[in-house]
Write a structure and sequence with these properties.
Blueprint (H helix, E strand, L loop, with lengths): L25 H28 L11 H17 L1 H12 L1 H21 L2 H28 L9 H30 L1 H22 L19 H20 L8 H22 L5 H24 L5 H8 L4 E2 L2 E2 L8 H20 L6 H17 L14 H29 L5 H23 L7 H29 L5
Antiparallel strand pairs: 1-2
Keywords: Cell membrane, Membrane, Transmembrane, Transmembrane helix, Transport
Pfam families: PTR2
Main location: membrane
Length: about 500
């Protein structure tokens, strides 16, 4: 297994140049894999909060709503925090391609646990496995998309937008189908359907993985075999510490969200330090990593608001939204599919727009600033409907707010994935993507922490504060864009 860095020009790029909407052929395969993984992930997450706080007689676990929302945020943070482990395994031991394959198996086992193991045991086992597997899959799927393009290929941002559309097709179908199954058969059957979706994605990837370019199989910075025992000892020690912390009550369901936030913050600081001090990173690459820091902060703020779709917005849909759809009471989990519908409609529009603009398109910092500001406007748009009581908010109004969520997401999320692959040092290709996902981890955890301040009595002040804060951050980032651009060293 070679230890040389990935080639900047994948062997498959030229012959497959116009195979999939003008992009490399393997983009279609990774598009499909991510679609099914997201089907299972969002299908499960669409009913997860309700499973946690619905009463036992309604098939749930009967948790307090605030604690349940915090746990959902902590779980979301854990998913993206585990991208560190998945990226490290890819860059040091297995390579992106094999890490993705094994991670998909772990995810499927997690969904099976949620479906078959009852009570808190099934919840704990399932969420831990899904978090670990998803972390390994997400960072490596993104890194594999990056291997399909040359460093300065103008199609790259558009390719990631197309890939992002696959994510959201799965995100659209998953909550709808699991919601219907939950409504008619119960929570555990809904979780079972998520397991079936992941099994389809795994089978599809197993059949097509051999067609990935050679660079997908490279281990960028192999771990010497002499250090395997040491790393195994460290892993065992970490597991023991975690077990003891839980056993002695230092980590509980009530404080888990705070613990996850601290871990994500420390991991982010540590990751930046490791990459910036590495002797394998040259001066230009180091400057590019510095340029990523303000983008990391902006991304964290964005996800702290956006991920409230699974906490505050889910609670809002269950308590204040008029769920009557032409005389049929739709499950509140269907709300989770509104954003993916808009992504599917507009992802291609954004991809086409960036492609046509070419070198005239806004730089990455400006796109991030736009995403933050629009996200702030989306939260301010809740204010006219706040405090109305049960069934008071029209479904069309929430759809309009989630359309703003979508425009914000398309301005920042696929661009962040693309920027991570472009700014990554040669020795840290997948781990730089994991660093972007750490911003999602920290933001997701903060979304659960912020949810504890939300109630029907605090809606106006809650939405006002977060909306204005996001807009102000967006303006500051736009003003700093020229300085950030200089540090990016020619990367747009």
């Amino acid at each position: 297994m070679t230890s040389s860095p990935p080639s900047t020009q994948p062997a498959s790029a030229a012959p497959a140049r116009k195979a999939f909407f003008g992009h490399p052929r393997m983009l279609a395969n990774l598009f499909s894999v991510e679609l099914w993984e997201r089907f299972s992930f969002y299908g499960m997450q669409g009913i997860l909060l309700y499973y946690m706080y619905y009463s036992v007689t309604d098939g749930g676990l009967g948790m307090n709503e605030g604690v349940a929302a915090g746990l959902v945020g902590a779980y979301g943070g854990g998913v993206y925090l585990s991208t560190i482990l998945g990226a490290w395994v890819a860059d040091r031991i297995l390579g992106s391609e094999r890490t993705l394959f094994y991670s998909a198996i772990i995810i499927m086992l997690g969904h099976v646990s949620l479906s078959l193991v009852p009570g808190y045991a099934g919840l704990a086992i399932g969420l831990v496995l899904i978090a670990l597997g998803s972390g390994g899959l997400k960072a490596n799927a993104t890194a594999l998309v990056g291997t399909l393009y040359e460093e300065k290929d103008e199609r790259r941002d558009a390719g990631f937008s197309i890939f992002y559309m696959g994510i959201n097709i799965g995100g659209l179908i998953g909550p709808i189908l699991t919601g219907l199954v939950w409504n008619s058969m119960g929570f555990h059957f809904g979780f079972g359907l998520a397991a079936v979706g992941m099994a389809i994605g795994l089978a599809q990837y197993a059949a097509t993985r051999k067609h990935l370019p050679e660079s997908a199989h490279i281990v960028a910075n192999p771990l010497p075999k002499s250090k395997y025992a040491r790393m195994g000892g460290i892993a065992a020690a970490v597991l023991i510490v975690v077990a003891l912390a839980i056993g002695f009550g230092l980590v509980t369901s009530e404080n888990l969200v705070s613990v996850m936030a601290v871990l994500a913050l420390l991991a982010s600081i540590g990751y930046f330090a490791v990459i910036l001090t590495s002797k394998r990173v040259n001066t230009l690459e180091r400057r590019r990593v510095y340029s990523f820091m303000p983008l990391f902060v902006a991304s964290t703020a964005f996800w702290a608001l956006f991920q409230q779709q699974f906490t505050v917005v889910a609670l809002y849909a269950d308590s204040s939204l008029n769920l009557d759809l032409f005389g049929w009471q739709m499950p509140p989990s269907f709300v989770q599919s509104i954003n993916p519908i808009f992504i599917i409609i507009f992802a291609a529009v954004f991809a086409s727009m960036w492609t046509k603009l070419g070198t005239r398109q806004p730089g990455t910092p400006v796109k991030f600033a736009i995403g933050l500001a629009v996200m702030g406007l989306a939260f301010l748009a809740f204010i006219p409907f706040s405090g109305g009581g049960p069934n008071s908010t029209p479904l069309l109004a929430l759809a309009g707010i989630l359309l703003l969520f979508t425009f914000a997401e398309l301005s920042l999320s696929p661009i962040g994935l693309s920027a991570a692959t472009k700014l990554a040092p040669a020795a840290y290709p997948t781990q730089m993507v994991a660093l972007f996902y750490l911003s999602v981890s920290l933001g997701s955890t903060l979304s659960g922490w912020l949810a504890q301040f939300y109630s029907t009595e605090t809606e106006v002040s809650y939405f006002s504060f977060l909306g204005i804060a996001a807009i102000v951050l967006g303006i500051i980032l736009a003003l700093c864009a020229p300085s950030i651009k200089k540090l990016m060293g020619g990367v747009r």
